[in-house]
Structure formats: structure tokens, C-alpha cells
Amino acid sequence: MCGIVGYIGSRTAYPILIKGLQRLEYRGYDSAGIALVDNGKAFIHKCRGKVRDLEQIVKGKNISGSIGIGHTRWATHGVPNDVNAHPHRSMNGKFVVVHNGIIENYSHIRTLLVEKGYKFESQTDTEVLANLIEDIYMSAQCDAESAIRTALQKVVGAYGLAIICTDEPEKLFGTRKGSPLVLGMGNGEYFLASDATPIVEYTDKMLYINDEELVVATPKGIRLTNIYEEVDKKIDVTTVDMKLDNIDKGSFPHYMLKEIHEQPNTIADTFRGRLLADQHQIFLGGISDVLPRLARARRIIIVACGTSYYAGLVGEYLIEEYARINVEVEYASEFRYRNPVITSEDVIIAISQSGETADTLAAIRMAKQKGALILGICNVVGSSIPRETDAGIYTHAGPEIGVASTKAFTAQTVVLTMMALLLGKKRGEISEELYNSLIEDLATVPATISRILADEEKVREIAERYKGATNALYLGRGVLYPVALEGALKLKEISYIHAEGYPAAEMKHGPIALIDNLMPVFVLATKDKYYEKVVNNIQEVKARQGQVIAVVTSGDTVIRKMADYVIEIPQVDEPFTPLLAVVPLQLFSYYVAVMRGCNVDQPRNLAKSVTVE
Ligand code: F6R
User: Fold this and answer.
1) Ligand 1 pocket mutation, candidates 1, 179, 260, 307, criterion most atoms within 8 A of CB
2) Cα separation of 435 and 147, whole Å?
3) Weakest-pLDDT range from 19-28, 82-91, 349-358
């Protein structure tokens, strides 16, 4: 959600912090701020709005100092305004804090502090924490590290924190619980951030901070401890393979468009070393040790949120079809609180682009306690979910910066497809012949998506026609039903048009009442076992003057005569159609949003990586 950045070293911190915040702005963007320490004094600059607004307000102000912290916010406690923006300073100015997460018992702590005479400027839980640390520091007359440690022991909730203490200006403190934090290790300098994107420009050596760890960085070195004990912990440095052009827009006007276009390459990256088409083999190294247990599973439960949940629904169709294992797909937020019946014969698969989604993380923790095998399908290497699962598969789609998920969906779907085929083979549920031919066909998907992308102009024309719509319906059946849900989600997220996804056959049980001559209805109508039935649904929409945009198999002449617009996608085996059919829907949402003047990469109220409940 929020983005945190921090720097300590010999360079001027300000440009590093600002650039870092720009890179992290996709995590939250309703306000931004920085604090810089110069000659033992902290200078805080913050405002409602974007990082570019922050750059304006610091003009002419003191921005020197080689230690500092910064924040880009997605509001939880308190409306987005200048006062609630981070950093927050403690009442006597000893501590300055930026925070990602929610302190759940902040109200109780605030009351205690008010009784002690503390006054608060903002409505945030973060200011409460800054004052709690200061109160302990001043009353116990201890050092800053001990005060932070003691304060965190009193806190209930989630936090990623960067903290500076003006009495100890040569130290940068970082700690986390439930919200990600990474320390970049430079030469005599350290970079703290919510993820690696602002750091890779300076170093590829990262220390991923674990929950309840506290790092203290000085230009001379770092110290890592647990918040409960002062014993030094081993520093486990990870070398991150992330290139700068992975996190730049390149020649594209928006990240979202870039990421849609990257899909032929990202899917090829997901395949790499796993889909060995010429040998007719699938090798999923990340789960090879647990494959026998997975293949014996009584049930697979997929837990995820949003777009990742929809990828999970595709997985359900494919795993049940090919591996004949019972699959359930659950919204992580519901699953975690439902006291579900789980045994050690169950396998849980958590799907998450960010690997940090709070509900998904909580769901796997709960299932782990009940003895299930926990697997992950995640994109962000080193994030929390992969670190808490027994095994898993990285999607390798590269950083997804656009808030609306696109390439992550296709990468997740590809992983689930490979998993379904591999399990089917291992369990003897699919013949060698079918397995081989599906593998060969799957390998052609990246090139096929490139062909769909080459028809982008057609989708742009359709977007032009429907950009003024107020509602839209997306219909699909079988493996394309989750794609209908995903298409509708993309449209609402970035263009703010109300859209619904439905199984096509459900239309007559209610949504048909909405159809009139203004209503665009996307129908996913490829040549599969549902084709004739979906054609009937198109007739039903047309009989009510609805506008039909049909996604069809290339060469379809029947639907062409009925629909207002057709978008052709090449013929592939049925299980792979989601990977193709979703692409024009992504493009449609993108162009409609651009034409409506929406901020495509930073849609209102949303943020990437939902690290709070
Ligand atoms: C949709 C979108 C969200 C995420 C959801 C889960 O475009 O971005 O719905 O899919 O918040 O996020 P991850 O996959 O990071 O767990």
C-alpha cells in the first residue's frame, strides 16, 4: 500500500529519496513526504498529492543531509491531507517516522499518551507510534534502539517502518511486521524501501527484513536483531536480478500499456526452463520436492484476491479437467475467517502478484496451522508469501507497476496451466498423446498473443465507440467465465465504468434486465464446447437491442453476422483460450480509461500491494 524509502550514506539523500518515491508511487499516491536530517535537526516536507507536488513545495527549503526517510501514502487512518501525510514527528521532535500498515491498538495507546500530556496534530496511527517511542525513550532514558524495540512490543497490528532519531542522527532504523521492507546494501551506504524497485539503481545486494526484525544502519555497517531480543542475527544477503528497464515505461505512455505488450515476453519467461516443448516435458523445479504430495492431494484450495483470484478460477477448471483433483477457489479474506475444514491431505495454493497481500498471507498462515501443505504462485521474488510457503513457483513476469494487474494474470494462468498438465500426467489422467500435443500448443501462446496485440487498433476503435458507456456486461462460459470477471474488473478499476462479469448462462437469471441499446455486452464466444449455447446468448442480447462485442475464434462467420463488433483470436486448445481472450479486454479497458481522461496507472482509491486488511 504505502511506499517507504530511506537512505543513509555520504551522498545527499534528497534526490535518492525523491526518485525512490517516484518509483514507489504505484503503491499509494494520495500524499507524499520526506524528512532529512541536517546538523542533528530533522526537516520535514510533506503534502497531499503526488510526489511531483512534493517536489514543488520543497523549492527553496532546506533539503541537505545525507540521511533521510520518505513516504508515499495510501490513506488508512485520516483523510489524505497535508497534516496526515507522513513523515510524522513525535511531540518533542526526537523521532520521525514513516509507516506502512495499521497499528490496531493505536486508540488505546493514544489515550494513554494523552493522559501523559501528549498532543497530536494528525489523525494517524503513525503519529501515535512516534510518540510512544519517544515517551519510552524519554522516560526510560534509554537509547533509540531500545525505545523502538520496547514500543514495538506494545504494538498490535502491521507495520513497515523507517525511523530516525534526531539525538542519534547517524542511524537509520527499519523494522517490519506484515508490511514488506528491504535494505539495499551499498558501499558505506544503505537504502531502505518497501520493495527493491527504488534500490536496484544503486545496488543489487538486498537484505529482506523478516517480520519482527529490526535493522539499524549506519554508514559503517548494519546490525540486525529481533524486536524481542538484542542478539545479533545473521545477515542473509540476496542478489536481485532486476534491470532498470524493467521498471521504466520505455516508449509507452503508461505502464499498463507496456505491461500488456510485454505479455509475449513475460509468458516466455514464465515458461523458461519449465516448459520443455521439444522434449514434451514440464519441469516445475519450485514444487518438484512436494509433487508426490500434491499429486496425492485430496483437495486443492486456491486462495487469492482480485485478479489473482480469477487466475485461480481458471486453475480450478484446468486442474479438475486434467488432473481430476477436487479444487476450490476461495477469496482469501473470507477463507481466513471462516474456520474452514482443512486437513493434512489438503494442499493450499496462494496466488499473489505482490506476494504481500495481507488477506492471502493470513489465509496461508491459518491453513499451515491446520497441517496443510502450502504452495505459492507469486511474482515478487523474496516477498512475504513465498517466504512463508513450503514450496512454490515464481511467475517471473517482472515488476508490475501499473496498478491494474495484466501480465501477472497471464503469468499466473500459465503457471496453473503447466501445473494442471503436469499433475494430470503424473496421476495418469491424461494420455501421453494429449499431453504432448497440449505442451506443443501451449508453447505457441506467446507468438499468438503477439498476433492479437498487432490488432490493437481494432480494439481502440471499439473503445472509442463505447467510451461513454455507464455500464458493461461481460459474459463467458467454462474457462472463459473467469476471463469475463477479469475483463469487468479491469474496466471498473481504471475507467470507473460499472461492469459485471457473469457466466453467460446466468444472464437470463437476472442481468438480462439491464440490457438496453446503450449497454455494451462483451461475449467471449470462441469455438469450444459451449459455442452453440453462447451463440444463443448473443441472440438473446440482440433481441433486446444490446450492443454485442464478441471475442471469437478467427474465421468465425456466424457471430460476425450477429454482433456489433467482433474481435478475433487465433484458434488454440480450449484450456489456453483465457491467455488469449483476456488481452483484448485489457486493451479495451486501457483505451476507454485513456479516452475518459483517467489516470490509468494510478486509478483513484486503489494501490498496488494491499498489505492491510
Ligand atoms: C486488479 C488488481 C487487484 C489484485 C489484488 C491481489 O487489477 O490489481 O485486484 O489482483 O489486490 O493482489 P496480489 O495478486 O498482489 O495478491
Assistant:
1) 307
2) 60
3) 19-28
